[in-house]
């Protein structure tokens, strides 16, 4: 009986611990860090090809603490444009480890110029235009999100 109670307690403790870990790194949130400090954003995920193609088009506003995280199945060269996008955006391009490889500041609404991420990109975070510069987000900053897995520069575990 005592062994069963201890086993049950161990399972409950493991579930509570994994719930705490999951709560610290939810799918709908990203945290960035660097010498400049840390910033947290609530995010909508764009994982399917259709979601990535639509992105933040036709939106009239985006709350300051929100963004969209575009996640690709594997690292790939990517290009974005602002056709049908109504608000200026910063685009933060990330490698497979969740490191920022490039920041494109203040992409302009309706501009059809392709903005390339350079090299192999695993994800792109879009936030309000000008915010990355104000916060000091730059290349080599790190982003934490479950999409980057245990091998990330800043893993969730």
Care to describe what's here?
By secondary structure, the protein is an alpha+beta fold. It contains three helices and nine strands. The strands form two sheets. A seven-stranded mixed sheet has the order 6-5-8-3-2-1-9. A two-stranded antiparallel sheet has the order 4-7. Residues 1-22 have low confidence and may be disordered.
Topology (SSEs and partners):
Blueprint: H1 2-24, E1 29-34, E2 37-46, H2 49-54, E3 66-76, E4 79-80, E5 89-94, E6 100-107, E7 115-116, E8 121-128, H3 131-135, E9 142-144
Structural class: alpha+beta
Number of strands: 9
Q: Report the span from N to C terminus.
A: 33 Å
Give the helix tally.
3
Average residue pLDDT = 88
* Low-pLDDT regions: 1-22
Largest beta sheet, briefly? 7 strands, mixed
| Structural Rg | 18 Å
Share in helix: 10-25%
User: What is the beta-strand fraction?
Assistant: 35-45%
Instruction: Please tell me what the overall shape is.
Output: globular
Placed side by side, the strands forming the largest sheet appear as: 6-5-8-3-2-1-9
Give me the strand/helix succession: HEEHEEEEEEHE
